[in-house]
Amino acid sequence: MEFDYLKHMTEGLDRNEILDELMLAYGKDVWNYAYFLTCRREAAEDIAQDVFVKAYQNLHNYRGESPIKPWLLSIARNTALDYLRSSWVRKVSFLTPHASRASHPSAENEWLHREEHQAIWDIVLKLPRKLREALLLYAHHQLSMKEISALLGVSEGTVKSRLFRAREAVNRAWGSSGQERSELS
Amino acid sequence: MKRAERDWESHLTETPLGTGGFSMGTIRKVKERIAVQERRKKKKIVPLAAAALVAVILAAVVFRSEIGSTLASWNKPEPEKKPVISETETTTLKIGYLSGADDFMRKYGSPFVIRHPMARFSYSANVPKMGSLEDYREWIENEEPDLVQIPLGYLDELSSAGLLTDLDALLLRDGIDEQNFYEPVRRTIREAGAGKLYGMADKFSAYGLYYNRELFAEFGIPEPSGSLTWEETMGLAARFAGSEKNGDPVYGLSFGYRPGLSLNAVTVGQSLGLGTYAPDGLRSTLSSKAWTGLWSSFVQGYRDGWIGGEQGMEQGKSYPMKELYKLDPFLNGRSAMTFQPSDYGSNLAGAREMIGFDDEWALLPAPALDESARSGGQAMEIGYVFAIPSRSSQPDAAWELLKYILSPEQTERQTRTVPYTLYTVKAETVDAFGPQDAYYEARYDTSLSLSSLKQKADPAYQALLNLAYKSGQERERDLLNGSLGVEPFLKQLDNEAEETLRTLAAEKEARP
Fold first, then answer.
1. Which DSSP string do the residues of B243-305 spell out, in sequence order?
2. Could you tell me the pTM of the whole model?
3. pLDDT digits over B246-260, tens only?
4. Chain B interface, mutation test: which of A9, A10, A22, A24, most B Cβ atoms within 10 Å?
5. Which of A81, B84, B250, B457 could lock B243 by a disulfide, CB 3.0 to 4.6 Å apart?
6. Predicted confidence (pLDDT) per residue in B155-192, tens digit
């Protein structure tokens, strides 16, 4: 259903217009996925650019056999994994990903919610990559089990198992951090 | 309850704070990179083009006649089925939606545009919202929107006036099985449209009886099952009279953070569809046998302490949710049962997160008025339905949008952000609704649902209900200390109600 018109690319539609639509519709998804995989803003920015350049080059090859979002995410995944495999990255050990908060002053009543929100993201971004990826493809990108399975190249059972393990790990960490929070308050 | 454990998952639909993300700057950079690549390609194309031209001329000479025509037939594109919503030209649908453009786009518009990139929406600024039937009729006639939300109670009149499209024909045309829609919702809407389907709702609500399994086990009282009557519910609640836990009272039944006797007696009566006046419009029925029974059992329960009557929220004061949860005995593990609407699941999840409510709970359908009503079922609430006005200039495109609103993928999307709503279409890959499933297993009485709907839209009915609430509130102390019996109270109420009916009739008469 989605972006079916890509199937008719050769019938004179403007590739640049389609690229614009794709970037507006899926830019954030691609950028976020790259960030979730690499936990680096600069890397996510570079990967997102690469993805849309590659998508533009391959629009003629897209025949609508899979929905457009998983297609773009699969390009993002391959690009991100190439990046993670690069020798430079392997030599650098990243600190726990932390988003900058300094630029987001907020009212006090919003602050608590943001703290909780950030605490959950901190836990999720610390998960092992495979678990993190399955959880975020489901909960953030809202892909179906079938789509996640096709994207990751594993069975639906494996996806479910990774999701289960991811949730267990977050529940555990969230439970213990909640205890810490209540002890502090 | 698995869902409650995973309440943190809703945070993941957003982004981690401060991660910035894809921006217009990124889009510009992508375009610059593509432009550079295209320029490089063009430089290479000149020699390649000359070679290609030679090849084409040779091919034309060699492969003429039969081979040529076969190749031509292979290359001929298959005739494509024309899409309902153009893929090249903008289709703008005019929407009449109660909660405004932002809410529409967030819930339905944005995901639909992703699927139909050339679809756009304009919004009617004059949605009558709480308007009368006449307001809705004028609005549809004058504005000619493509998709509207209208009160279910007006469906019959608006469709009789020829203003709405019959969805049956569209379902049949597109081969859509109407069994995709939850049967009691479909049946109720069909009944409201005199047998035809002129609209459809994507969600509904109902009341339920939530109970704390651990408290039943702790006090050695067998858990309730099946469908109870109010008499049985009160009898069960009374078995908790005098119970305590850690020095605090434990109630058999409670009503959240609004514990007042009068408010809850009236709320339950309304949920059961109890009438407030006779068909002649002159006589009050607030002292009927059903109302008397209900008030009597409530007074008994509050007086004997098995209905929770602790200090609740103060009217007009605003509370953070955490403080409200603390005022609800059920959410503090001190009430065996509570009568609540279907979105109470979000309070249970919130209380788990904020005040550590961890008890195991379960759910039964709302109690029935009496034995005879038990077999009929309970009322469900469908406030508004989506409908396609017959004057829509783009009925097919509007139908595409409505099909999306009613699709399993849309339910799945919504379930992730608003999990405690009862959706008309079940999501494809939801693991389990858990205790919420009881709402789907309940029996619903179509005529009760529709008569409740009419009562809610009837100003006289509402005025008498309000009177009963206020009178009960003023005399609550006398009722509880026994200085005023239930029957004399309801007789007084009848007199006041009939006075109100006369005033309303006079006002109606005086209206031009």
1. -EETTEE-EEEE-TT---HHHHHHHHHHHTT--SB-TTSSSB-TTSHHHHHHHHHHHHHHHHT
2. 0.63
3. 899 999 999 999 889
4. A24
5. B250
6. 999 999 999 999 999 999 999 888 889 999 999 999 99
